[in-house]
Prior knowledge:
This protein has helices at residues 3-10, 17-22, 146-149, 166-173, 210-216, 294-302, 324-329, 339-348, 366-383, 416-429, 441-444, and strands at residues 26-31, 41-46, 49-55, 61-65, 79-81, 84-86, 93-94, 100-102, 120-121, 123-126, 129-133, 144-145, 155-162, 221-226, 230-238, 243-252, 256-260, 265-275, 278-287, 305-306, 311-312, 402-403, 407-412. By secondary structure, it is an alpha+beta fold. Strand 16 (243-252) and strand 17 (256-260) form a beta hairpin.
Amino acid sequence: MREDRNKLLTETTPRSSAGKVLRQYWVPVALTEELDNQRAVLPIKIMHEELVLFRDKNNNLGLLDRQCPHRGVDLSYGRLENNGLRCVFHGWCFDKSGQCLEQPGEPENSKLYQRIKTKSYPVMEINGVVFAYMGDRKETTPPQLDCFRAPDSHVFAFKGKWECNWLQALEVGIDPVHASFLHRFFTDEDPSDQYGKQFRDNTAGTNIPITKVLREFHRPDIHVDETNYGLRIKTFRNLNNGSTHARITNQIFPCAISIPMSNSMTITQWHVPVDDENCYWYAMFTSFDEPIDKEKMRAQRLADHSLPEYLPKNNKKNRYGFDRKEQETQTYTGMGMDINVHDQWACESMGTIQDRTNEHLATTDKAISAYRRMLLQSITKVEDGDQELIGIVSGDDAYTIRGPIALDAIGSSEDQDSIWLAGDQKRRSQSSWNANLYYKETEND
C-alpha cells in the first residue's frame, strides 16, 4: 500500500476522508455506567474532538463541545443546573442542544444568550451504551441489530482502550485464520466453566470443543460476501469425517464486528478512534436464551482492566504478561487465557499506526482486502456528495438491517451454507426474546 493511501484510511480528524465516513454513522462514545454517579458529567475524546457528555436533571443526555464558546474553558468541570450544564467560569448555562440558556453576569435585559449556541451532537442510550451521531444528515437511525433489539436483561456492555489506530484494531476482528494460532490453547477446558469466556464452548450440537477445531484444522476455506450492513465472513473447516465446521463472523460498516461468543451469546464490537494513535473497543454481549449475569461478566473484565479509563492491566509496559513456560505448555502466545490480550498485543505491536507499505497480504486476508475496498468506495462517495452509503438507514428502514448471523456450527459437508442457516434458525426459534423475528436476507441473496 502506498503511504498516502494508508493515511487516507487511518486518519479520522473532522476534515479527513475516513473521518468524514465514520461520522455518517452512530458510534459508541461512553458506557451508561460511566454516568451512573452523583455527577453525571464526563469528558469525551472521539475522532480528535474534545467533547463533554452529561445527563441533565430531567435524565436527558447532551454531548457538547468541551470548550465553552465564551472564553474557551473546559465545560467538563461544569455544574448540572437549570436543566443544563453551567460553566463555572462565568456561569453561562447550556442545554443538551448546545443552546445557551443564561448569562447571569450580563445586564439584566440582555438577550445575547439567545444568539449563543455551541456545537452539539445527538446521542441515545441503547442497552448500556451511549451512541452519538457526528455527521451532517438530518435523520439517521441505528439498524435493528440483535444487540439493540434484545431486552436490557440480555445485553452486557463493556469497553477497553488500546494504544493503536482504529483500523488495525478492526482488521484483527475480520481475520478468520488468526484464531487458529493467536488464540490457540494446547488443552481444552471444561465447557461447563465457559460462561463469559470466548472459545471455551463445545461447538453447537456436539461435544467437540471449539478450541480443538481451531487448533487442529488451521487451513480453512474462507468466503466473503457483501451484505446490506457490510461483510459476512464464512469460514469452513473440513473435519475429514464428512462434516464441516462453519464459523460465521461479520463486519458491520464502518467500524464494528459481530462474532460468536458461545452457543448462546454473540459479541457486537465497535472500534472507535480516540485519535489516530488510540482507540476504544465497545462490546455488547447479547444472550439468546437466559438473562446475562452482568455482575459476573463485569467482575471478570474488571479483573483485567483498571478504571476510570478501562485500561488493560496487561499491556506493552509489562510485555502483556508474557510467560515463556506458559508459551511452551498452555497457550500459543504465552500471554494468558484472555484472548482480548492476544488481540491487543497483535494490534499494538504493529505500531501505533501500522505501516502498511511493508505488509504482504495473503489469500486468507480476503476479508481485510474487501473491507479496505469498501472503505475506499465510501470515501469516494462522501467526497462526491453521494448519500447512498452502505448500512445508512432511517425510520422504518432500520428494520431492513437485523442480526447479523454470528455462530459456530457443525454439519454435513455436502451443503456448507445450510450448516449455519439451520444453526441460526434453531437458535432464534428458541430465543427467549423473539429473536426469531429476523430478516431472511440470506435466503434472498
